[in-house]
Design a protein that fits this description.
single chain; mainly alpha; 2 domains; 5 helices; 3 strands
């Protein structure tokens, strides 16, 4: 899930900031401290403690759509990339198999030594 700041968590949970900090102090909500000292909370943690989150509506992005041609070219490019990656993975698997065959060593049958025999040959 995503990590959100305390401010974003208050918007998602519709809880007061003080309530979030109190729950963090009591250990009900686990969090992570960022390099700048700010706290961030995982959204799955918010769902676990407070239940379903309120969705933040984004009206500006809803109107933006890619033209059909752009969607087709993007999907074709992604499909081509997936095929190339699959071929690369298959090649790497073959290389690993070849390395395993080259590195295969047979075990020698040594008699185990007792602890008092380590200095003797």
């Amino acid at each position: 899930m995503a990590w959100v700041t305390v401010r974003q968590a208050t918007e998602l949970t519709e809880k007061a900031r003080s309530s979030l900090y109190r729950d963090m102090a009591k250990g009900r909500v686990s969090y992570r401290t960022e390099a700048d000292g700010g706290r961030v909370v995982d959204t799955s943690e918010l769902i676990r403690v407070y239940g379903e989150l309120r969705l933040i509506e984004t009206h500006d992005r809803d109107g933006l759509r890619l033209p059909d041609e752009t969607e087709k070219t993007v999907s074709e490019a992604l499909i081509a990339e997936i095929k190339a990656l699959r071929e690369e993975v298959a090649g790497l698997r073959q290389e690993m198999q070849a390395m395993r065959l080259l590195e295969h060593k047979t075990e020698t049958a040594e008699t185990p030594r007792r602890w008092w025999q380590w200095g003797k040959r």
